[in-house]
Design goal:
Oligomer: single chain
CATH superfamily of the largest domain: Winged helix-like DNA-binding domain superfamily/Winged helix DNA-binding domain
Largest sheet: 3 strands, antiparallel
Number of helices: 8
Strand order of the largest sheet: 1-3-2
Number of strands: 3
Order of helices and strands: HEHHEEHHHHH
Distance between the termini: 55 Å
CATH class of the largest domain: Mainly Alpha
Shape: globular
Radius of gyration: 23 Å
Length: 215
């Protein structure tokens, strides 16, 4: 997860280590923080693997470290895209990974965005279906086996309903964002061009300029 977080932030532009840590911790919340002892060895590994590059700053230090600016390489961009499109790794933690990817959807092509959104829609629907079935089955078990107890059964159903409602909320939010993406693709939404769309347009112009004249 941290590899993707670092590469995605650097895809947006160069950053120094302190800012990378601050943004990650702001997103993670107060109880899951990445420490310098974990971040800088990971940055060193990404640099060794050729995914990022480091430049010395203006000599200023943050704490006991000299401030360096990190940038993503072409290989790093390829790795970012690979991680962005990965929908099979860590299925149990995919909810957290998906929402980590959301701010960077505009760095992939429109068809890829719809693929990721549709995959998460199916993911949510599968979990909603699971909890609905589990609630029905547990209700039947409670009636069949009174030893389970009314108080315990109500608490279990309460938790299952809470989980189902959470996934329904995610489903509704992603449906709303998907509608936005479809509207933009159909030209109904006035939105600035994304980095991937700008790059594709520039590539098309370059190709048109190199086509020889038929006269």
């Amino acid at each position: 997860m941290y590899e993707f977080a670092i590469l995605s932030l650097l895809t947006h532009g160069p950053k120094h280590g302190y800012l990378i840590a601050k943004i990650i911790n702001d997103v993670n919340g107060p109880f899951t923080k990445i420490s310098s002892g974990r971040l800088y060895p990971l940055l060193a590994k990404l640099q060794k693997d050729g995914l990022i590059a480091a430049e010395e700053g203006d000599g200023r230090q943050h704490g006991d470290r000299r401030q360096r600016t990190f940038t993503i390489t072409d290989t790093g961009r390829q790795r970012f895209h690979q991680l962005m499109m990965d929908t099979t790794s860590n299925p149990g933690d995919y909810q957290r990974l998906f929402w980590l990817k959301m701010p960077f959807l505009h760095y992939v092509q429109p068809t890829e965005r719809l693929y990721l959104l549709d995959h998460y829609l199916n993911y949510c629907q599968t979990l909603i279906f699971h909890y609905r079935n589990e609630m029905e089955e547990f209700t039947q078990d409670t009636a069949r086996y009174p030893i389970i107890g009314e108080e315990f059964s109500q608490a279990v159903l309460y938790v299952q309903r809470r989980c189902m409602n959470q996934w329904q909320l995610d489903l509704d939010q992603v449906r709303e964002w998907r509608a936005r993406e479809v509207a933009r693709a159909e030209g109904l939404l006035d939105a600035p061009a994304t980095p991937s769309e700008t790059e594709a347009a520039a590539s098309g112009k370059r190709k048109r300029r190199t086509v020889p004249s038929s006269t």
